[in-house]
Request: fold
Amino acid sequence: QVQLVESGGGLVQPGGSLRLSCAASGSIANIRGMGWYRQAPGRQRELVAVIAPGGSTTYVDFVKGRFTISRDNAKNTVYLQMNSLKLEDTAVYYCSASIDIQTYWGQGTQVTVSA
Reply:
């Protein structure tokens, strides 16, 4: 069994910053890629960023230069530093982890960007 627990969401003004964390626990001996996705109301879940065990990263265009994904393999934790937040970044952010051939998801954390 695998658990992913996210934290760090909240309400922030445009231009502000938040840092999301996601800690993995359980049967995670073969954890591989970890990442962040988001889902805004009325929209499909979309990729934000992913990071491989060695540290290589991939970002979608709309967050490049603003968001940074990182991971601490010793703590089995992935982070998402979000800077210069925009109104359109408002969404539920989900952590994901690939373990063996399965993808696991966290419960999501709400990020609201509002003036």
Q: What stands out?
A: The first strand starts at residue 2 and ends at 7. DSSP finds no helices and eleven strands in the chain.
